[in-house]
Amino acid sequence: MNETQREQIRNNARYLRQVRPIDPEEIATYVEGHPHPAAVRRVLRESATELGLSERSDGRFEPAPTGPVSLEPTVERLPERYARRLEELLVDRFGPGWPDGKSGDRLRERIRAFKRAYLRGEAVTYDELTALGYAVYHLPAYFAATQHALAELTAEDLLGGRLRVLDVGAGVGGPALGLAAALPEDALVEYHAVEPSPAADVLAALLEETGRNVHPTIHRERIQAHEPAGPFDLVLCANVLGELLEPVEVVCELLGALAADGTLLALSPADRRTAVELRETERAVLERTDAGVYAPTVRLWPDAEPAGECWSFTRQEPIETPGFQRRLDQGRRVDSGNEGEPGDGEFVNADVQYAYSALRTDGRTAISVTPGEGTARMAETDEHVTDRADFLAVKLSHDLAEAGNPLYLIGDGSERTDHFAVLVKQTGLNRALGTAEYGDVLAIENGLVLWNDDEEAYNLVVDGETIVDRVPG
Question: Which CATH code is given to the segment(s) 378-471?
């Protein structure tokens, strides 16, 4: 098909999209040479993001929705189409007995190796084996975590039915698949992944399962060498900032590629090192740019900036263990000296807990409340030690206590040292401390302020004299 015919197809689509659903068979009759409808459909698919068209299940096209969309999360389990495609890659590489024998041992040892490297804070070098091991072990949880984080945005109508997405350090595709699986079928997604490693090969294969209205492009280069063709409605940096030498500089550059009403969403694992590094990056970026925190560590006091460690993360229900993880975990070992036993759960990773930061440049935040008169600033908590005081605080953790009184990290955006709310006596008037969700704002009245020498942090004791209310955002 020549360029003249292609342009005739696009022009007819531009006209018909205002009138009725676009049928490739009808358009074929208007184009010189009457190309086959299948060829017309291919041109329409290639031009879908330019024309703003979604393909329907009947093969026709219509304008993609322009308003906000709601996600339809599938966080209980990884969809079968993705699990099946990943197993096909494993079978292609190792054969049908991939979880057993030498191939299974190689995968298990590689997973152990990149887990050890991660815990030591070392960079992971990717090859084909590492990419496949990473997909087996991390893909399901990253898939679910991304959906939970994105749900925070769609709850406030921050994602539309036509999306341009930049996924930095896209890896094997957990975030991409999470986004695609949760969006409505008619949402039109122009998806750009930046991934220089062999993980891009796994990503490319899995993206084939994302549906007819996800239009992917993979840029196989480092983000430092990539020039994003913005503006983007959503920039994803999932589990990648900790691997960059200059994460602050990269995020500052990426903010420049955002649409005026776009969001940069960064995620990291929930462990102390990476979660704290995420907050440090967030704070440094805010110092250098006009961006603001949309969620969760919202600054409640004007012109205030926090300085505590802020090991802040959220925890969701585990995702169902996919079959490929069970099979690798239960696979027959060859090396009798190999650590671990079949079925001991070493290669099952279904926990969904993560730290995240959502940044915007339009000043919009998830919380629009400000402290009232008489509310203590956490920057001045030292003035209230051994006294009772009122605070407005964002809940920044689930219960952190392994035993004893429930303990929650809280903050108001002015704290110079970490603050924890300790529930020593629950009453009907303070139960909101435990029932509030991560990121909710709490009004804490008459809390007892103490200094904790062991943790070098402030404890706000919530007892029978304390009232805690959730404040609508």
Answer: 2.40.50.140
